[in-house]
Amino acid sequence: MPEKNLPELITLKRLIDEGGKHLEVSTPHTVHMDGRHFPVYTIALGNPSPDVPALGFFGGIHGLERIGTQVVLSFMESLLARLRWDATLHQQLESMRLVFMPLVNPGGMWQATRCNPQGVDLMRNAPLSAVERVPFMLGGQRYSHHLPWYRGAEGAPMEPESQAVCDIVQRELLPRQFSMALDCHSGFGLRDRVWFPHAHTATPIPHLADIGALEELFSQSYPNHNYVFEPQSRQYRTHGDLWDYLYLNSDKVFLPLTLEMGSWLWVKKNPRQIFDRIAIFNPTARHRLQRVLRRHLILFDFLMRAACSHGRWTPEGMARKVQHRRALAQWYHT
């Protein structure tokens, strides 16, 4: 079997088989390397009508961060199991659309690199440059594909994997009046963070009130959660951010979020992991991995419910102004 050494892809193919008639599956790109073929899958389920809200889950954009793919697959497995008996879930899916792209960069995962096989960091690859200073190298560079955070050549088309993400978002999410996306990563800090745009500028996004209302709703619904919600620009700014690019190309309500799992905590608990570039970004102890896979199901389920019920919590009128002011004070200190 060509993918025998890429367990995440084996699991994904199994889930696709188990999902059967419930799933709409396509393969917008296939990576060919080392005599193997690694398909990039997109999966959709639920109501295809453009009149209902949609939510997308993405993982594996950075090949080193296997846990991002694993948490998306864990959620898919839970959903498919519930489809066999959960009438409430079937009713929910009549009112919304779900999209999954669990393994965007299988070539990078196979090579155990952050970038894709062409040496391009897919999260620095969009045709968008920061309007403010970015950290040297980390913010994206065009010196060489042999160095990390390579954006790709000036004026070159986006990498096929990046383009596949953009295509499904533009087809399934952006045309709707309301949509959200969650892109799962790891590797920053001791806390799990939920980042929202912008990454290319510290300027607040136009839908800041909606983000503020979403964060408040989650905190009220799950008062003991341990996530930090914040704009990515609060930590650092980058060139070529895919989600900034897609957000800027939307004329509806599109709220792209990034789950940045705090892998420094895993290293703190097992300092020897710092000498293993895979272990730096992924929990290695089985009990810790199971805990991570369980913990984020609450957030995933919440986002489903929030997308489906967006008309009940998105602020309007004076409430929108209040949320905007609150969010400015919380995240921008203004």
Low-confidence stretches: none
| Helix fraction bin | 25-40%
Strand order of the largest sheet: 1-2-4-3-5-8-6-7
Beginning-to-end CA distance, first to last residue: 56 Å
Number of strands: 8
* SSE pattern: HEEEHHEHHEEHEHEHHHH
Strand content: 15-25%
Name the structural class. alpha/beta
Q: What is the residue-averaged pLDDT? A: 95
The geometry reads as: globular
Major pleated sheet = 8 strands, mixed
**Estimated radius of gyration:** 19 Å
Number of DSSP helical runs: 11
Secondary structure layout:
Blueprint: H1 7-19, E1 24-33, E2 36-46, E3 54-59, H2 66-82, H3 87-93, E4 97-101, H4 106-111, H5 160-173, E5 178-186, E6 193-196, H6 208-221, E7 228-231, H7 242-248, E8 253-261, H8 264-269, H9 286-295, H10 297-308, H11 317-332
Helix pairs in contact: 1-2, 2-9, 6-11
How would you describe the overall organization of this protein?
- The protein contains 11 helices and 8 strands.
- With 334 residues, the protein is of the alpha/beta class.
- An 8-stranded mixed β-sheet has the order 1-2-4-3-5-8-6-7, sandwiched between helices.
- The mean pLDDT is 95.
Brief overview, please?
The chain is α/β, with parallel strands linked by helices and 334 residues long.
Keywords summarizing the entry:
334 residues, alpha/beta, eight-stranded mixed β-sheet, 8 strands, 37% helix, 17% strand, globular
